[in-house]
Every structure is written in structure tokens, then in C-alpha cells.
What we know:
mainly beta; six-stranded antiparallel sheet; three-stranded antiparallel sheet; 34% strand
Amino acid sequence: MNFTPYISMDACAGNVTDVCKIGQELLMSVRNFSQCVLEQKKSVLRYFNGVDHFYTTYFFEIGTALFGQIGNFSYKAEGVQCILKTEPRRDLVPLFRYFNGQDHFYTTDPDEIGTTLPGVIGRYGYQYEHIPGYCYRKREQDTVPLYRYCNLVDHFYTTNPDEIRTIVRGEYGRFGYRYEGVVCYVLPYVNWPLG
């Protein structure tokens, strides 16, 4: 039995409608997912709820991966931030994820928080959650820096320093974020929208 998906031509006439946009985004997500599985990579999705930027490789944590859509815990999808590797290798380091009830924190240096035991609370009230993936400690071919910023409430991570407009350690940029340094080096995501 053959199945042919049907979209009314009226739905796509004139301006591209939400139905067509969602279809295009889902198709792109399936293509990216297939490529990532084959190459042992996973996309890091970025969300913001007005207080905390949240990064995850599991879209089901928020319930959506569609740009601009609001999901669980009032997090709004902001797109794919970067790509992490799924398996450890000699040239890769784990990226650890922590949460203190208000802010998610990501680091390759477990000594910053002092624990990598699930559920254990370390420095600054951060509880270890898990390893979302693996990244490079030093710059390798085809990688870009993952920059870390903090505005006293929220840690913000980006591969695009133009979002905050500084990469001078200790200097403040847009939205009150102070540059803290490069966390690690990651694979870029080429279709990343600037929100």
C-alpha cells in the first residue's frame, strides 16, 4: 500500500503558512537527525524562559524543537546552538550539565562545581544532572568555540560572539552578560538563526 502525504495547495498559496513552515522544519529536523545518527553527533537545542537559557540534546525535555514555539516550563525554542559528539574518544571531553533550581550550568571542568555524581549538589547549589555529549578541549579542524557568559542570574552559551558582542574575559556585553571564556570547541550548526 502506498501512502502519499497530502497538503492542500491552498495551504501554501501566497505567503508560506504555518502548516508549510512546520512541515519544512520537521523535514529539516529529520534530515539533520539522520545525518547526526550516522556520524555519532547530536544537536544541542537552545531554549529561554525569560530567566534561564537551557540547552539540551533531548527535545522531549521541553516538548518542542520548533523555533519560536513555547514548550514545557515556559521555555521558548531558539534553535540549534551547535553539535556535540555522542561517544567519548581520546580527543574529546565530556560536557557536564548542572542545575541549581534557577540556572543551568555547563562545563568540561567538573572541579568548577565539585561533583559528577548524579543528584549530588556541589558548589553554588548546582546539582549534577548528566553529560549531554562530548566536545573538543582544543580547537580542531571544523570546530568553533562555545563561549560562556553570565549575567549574575543566567549562564548563556553561544558559538556566535556577535550575540553578546564581546570575547574579552571579564568584559560586559549586551543584556548584562559578562564574558567568562571558552567552554570547549564544538561542531557548528550551519542553519542557526539569530533570534
